[in-house]
Amino acid sequence: MTSGVSTGAAISPDSGEHWAAEGAWEVAPGIHRIPLPLPMDGLKAINVYVVRNDDDAGGLTLIDGGWAIPVARELLDKCLRSIGSGFGDIKRFLVTHIHRDHYTMATVLGHEYGADVALGLPEKPGLDLLHAAGRGEFDQGNPFSGVLRSAGALEVADAWELGRRVEDLPDPVDWAYPDTWLDGDVSVDIGSRTIDAVHTPGHTPGHYVFADRADGLLFAGDHVLPTITPSIGFTVPPEPDPLGHFMASLSKVRGLPDLRILPAHGPVAPSSHARVDELLAHHEHRLEQCLTSLRSRGASVAALVATDLGWTRHERSYDELDLFNKGMAAMETKAHLDLLVARGQATCVTSADGDSYTVTG
Fold first, then answer.
1. Domain 7-271 = CATH 3.60.15.10
2. Which residues sit opposite 337 in a β-bridge?
3. Which residues form the signal peptide (predicted)?
4. Separation between Cα atoms, residue 106 and residue 219, nearest integer Å
């Protein structure tokens, strides 16, 4: 789901420029937003937030770290120096989730400079899987193949499998285990500032948002994005009912005070309540579209239901998507169908050609 303004055209109020414009932009006293580049066609940047510890110990806490690529590291160094700091001043990384654009720079710099790296404990199975691949278990197959096949996207699964390269094996330096595991909802002190670390599974099992109630800020990671909705179902090991978890987590964030959104991707936005309401409404509409498709087809796998839906803000057809995004669409559609099953609105039968769904009643 997109908002009225596309991510590619969004101006952020803290900078007055495109949200991905280079710089260290002050979003609140003692807090700066630094957009770092991403080597992908879709999302152009990730926002890393720098929080200055306002006590005698000093130093910085960074929320997310960026992708460990040279151009991003060089820009982070430059932007930190522009506010009178450097890598050696970083005392802690609070990482919202395991995805490489959030985690890998944090763990690389954390271990180089002795900064504590904190990550949600439910991300450990994903890290375990990455470390298993790094020990030579590459021949076990693409970890997403099982999810794609259960979604009925058999040709996409075969193509993803053929596209694997040995050079794509995870670098253990990029994926080192964190120093601190976040377990449940906890409070984190940054100088005199108290941040609530709130577990929000859905996009990934161990996703966290960080709520600064005193200053009215929500470091939202990929959970509440102002111009798009995060992918759901793109997680290994696969999670049961990821969309159900995501929507429950949205409701959990809706129960917090209305906070200014400091997202990982896109511009700073004024209201967490307004955006959560939009996201919940979007997924309810998507669930109804899936039911309509199933009623028409009688019984279907997720990949076929995905062909009845529009994708991206331009409502592109499934056939217009590239190979990667076809896989993402099939997995996300499966997440919607699994939630319909959990709600008792559909049934599911597993076969070699994928999970087949039928409307109940």
1. yes
2. none
3. none
4. 16
